[in-house]
């Protein structure tokens, strides 16, 4: 978006958040624009609601106010950057904002706002009507509920989950993060049971196929996604609740329908018809997404062939004034360069750095086979299964190479390359030594902690460009070791530079417009409402 537009949208978003979340008791008003007539006009009208939910997870739902800027606020200006994947090359808000931990409420409230205004109302209505009308659709709604809401709790901590839409009592009671994770597993249990029974009774059924924009339309694909999602959530609890984590992971591995194992089963929002990839719009048309310096450090150091699939080399050299009446040419063309987070720059020169290879027509990934193999590698490392951690790790790398259609996985896995030091061609004050020191090569004699670092580093690469999950896993494990911000402008230094940002604060309008709601959320959080407070599963250790 144009630079002035970010100011306008920040104001609009703040106002809209006030309208949507200032009084949470009114938030389950349906803002999607879907009417009863829309539902009656279709043989399986429940699918319309499921379509809105699918568009709303990687947010690109057209609610009459623009389709792409909500995603920029919801994900791109926080998780995509905090994960170490990308950075906006424009000096938004004068250069000091989320990048240097001067957190902007109008940006950070967006995940809360849009999920509760567009996604959860549709899920709530499906939960009331679908069980009797179409049990399989109800099961898919439960899977989507977990898929959407685990992203929200992993941003903020406590959320309104089990009591959403409950008009009884004086307030919407939040679930702590521990509670909501337990409910996630319960909801997946119900969804898997319903789908498995439905498939057994109607193996050729495909009523959902014409509404499906995440998978291939088959109920078996949704069963695989549910089991794979259980694996993801189980591993998240590996340290904070190890017995529960082990039990849930093994349940997923043994569940009917199996898990995602090949790239043909990957879950991604299909960029066709009603959906276009908002990251592509931000990247191509707004010129507001380039490589993050941590990506440059790791991928160039590894000589990773996926680099050229993820990003584009700089298109031209940069000529800038030298301050003495002359010009200086910065050698960029044909090279890959990323922006170090937290440099608080006030110029537009970084627009010449490496753009993302993401189009509006690129499918938006939510879960890939490579991630599942790395989840299995970690589970094996922890002794939860009898699988080989090395075999699962190597399979994950090979699957990722195949997904991105690059060769050389065997040589890559035999390599001892490590991340490269970061050198900013525009400002040497931003230069910093690489933090990631592990190589791709597996060594069975290494300590478990180093093996885990290898697994998570490769998983981080493989999950690109899905910043929400990458940020969550980086916070959980500390891997990959990202480059810290150069300037830390967090309020009261509430965020530690080396520990990095741990969460997003609740919407500020809750504190002013609904102080009782805000009070119970903070109490459930168990710490101060700022970006330095760790979430429940964020223990600061890995074993």
The gist of it:
The chain has 543 residues and is mainly alpha-helical.
User: What overall geometry do the principal axes of the alpha carbons give?
Assistant: globular
Q: Uncertain regions: pLDDT < 50 for 5+ in a row?
A: 1-23
Would you list the SSEs in sequence order as H and E?
HHHHHEHHHHHHEHEHHEEEHHHHHHH
Helix content estimate: 40-55%
Average pLDDT over all residues: 92
Radius of gyration: 23 Å
Distance between the termini: 44 Å
Main sheet properties:
2 strands, antiparallel
- What would you call the structural class? mainly alpha
Number of strands: 6
Going across the biggest sheet, name each strand in turn: 1-3
Individual helix count: 21
The percentage of residues in β strands lies in under 5%
Labels describing this entry:
single chain, 543 residues, mainly alpha, two-stranded antiparallel sheet, two-stranded antiparallel ribbon, disordered N terminus
């Amino acid at each position: 978006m144009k630079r002035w537009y970010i100011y306008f949208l920040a104001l609009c978003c703040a106002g809209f958040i006030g309208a949507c979340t200032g009084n949470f008791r009114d938030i389950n008003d349906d803002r999607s624009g879907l009417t009863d007539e829309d539902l009656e006009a279709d043989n399986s009208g429940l699918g319309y609601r499921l379509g809105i939910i699918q568009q709303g997870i990687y947010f690109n739902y057209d609610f009459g106010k623009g389709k792409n800027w909500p995603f920029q606020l919801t994900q791109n200006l926080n998780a995509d950057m905090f994960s170490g994947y990308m950075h906006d090359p424009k000096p938004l808000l004068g250069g000091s904002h989320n990048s240097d931990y001067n957190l902007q409420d109008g940006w950070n409230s967006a995940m809360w706002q849009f999920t509760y205004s567009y996604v959860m109302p549709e899920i709530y209505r499906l939960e009331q009507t679908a069980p009797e009308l179409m049990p399989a659709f109800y099961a898919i709604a439960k899977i989507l509920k977990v898929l959407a809401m685990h992203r929200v709790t992993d941003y903020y901590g406590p959320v309104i989950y089990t009591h959403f839409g409950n008009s009884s009592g004086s307030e919407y009671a939040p679930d702590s993060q521990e509670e909501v994770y337990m409910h996630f597993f319960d909801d997946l249990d119900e969804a898997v049971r319903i789908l498995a029974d439905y498939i057994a009774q109607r193996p050729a059924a495909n009523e959902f196929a014409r509404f499906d924009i995440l998978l291939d339309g088959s109920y078996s694909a949704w069963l695989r996604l549910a089991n794979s999602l259980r694996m993801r959530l189980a591993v998240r609890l590996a340290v904070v609740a190890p017995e529960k984590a082990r039990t849930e992971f093994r349940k997923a591995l043994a569940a009917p329908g199996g898990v995602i194992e090949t790239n043909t089963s990957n879950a991604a929002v299909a960029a066709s018809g009603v959906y276009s990839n908002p990251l592509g719009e931000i990247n191509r048309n707004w010129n507001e997404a380039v490589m993050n310096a941590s990506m440059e450090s790791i991928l160039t150091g590894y000589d990773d062939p996926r680099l050229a699939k993820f990003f584009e080399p700089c298109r031209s050299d940069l000529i800038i004034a030298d301050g003495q009446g002359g010009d200086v040419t910065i050698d960029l063309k044909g090279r890959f360069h990323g922006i170090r987070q937290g440099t608080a720059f006030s110029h537009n020169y970084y627009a010449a750095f490496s753009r993302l290879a993401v189009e509006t027509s690129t499918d938006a990934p939510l879960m890939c086979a490579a991630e599942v193999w790395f989840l299995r590698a970690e589970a094996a490392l922890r002794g939860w299964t009898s699988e080989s951690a090395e075999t699962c790790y190597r399979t994950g790398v090979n699957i990722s190479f195949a997904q991105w259609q690059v060769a050389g996985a065997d040589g890559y896995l035999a390599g001892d390359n490590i991340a490269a030091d970061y050198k900013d061609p525009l400002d040497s004050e931003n230069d910093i030594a690489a933090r990631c020191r592990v190589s791709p090569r597996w060594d069975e004699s290494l300590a478990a902690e180093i093996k885990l670092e290898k697994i998570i580093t490769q998983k981080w690469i493989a999950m690109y460009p899905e910043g929400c999950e990458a940020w969550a896993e980086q916070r959980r494990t500390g891997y990959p070791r990202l480059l810290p911000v150069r300037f830390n402008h967090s309020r009261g230094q509430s965020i530690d530079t080396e520990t990095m940002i741990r969460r997003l604060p609740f919407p500020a309008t809750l504190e002013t417009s609904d102080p009782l709601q805000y009070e119970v959320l903070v109490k459930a959080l168990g710490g101060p409402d700022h970006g330095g407070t760790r979430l429940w599963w964020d223990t600061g250790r890995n074993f």
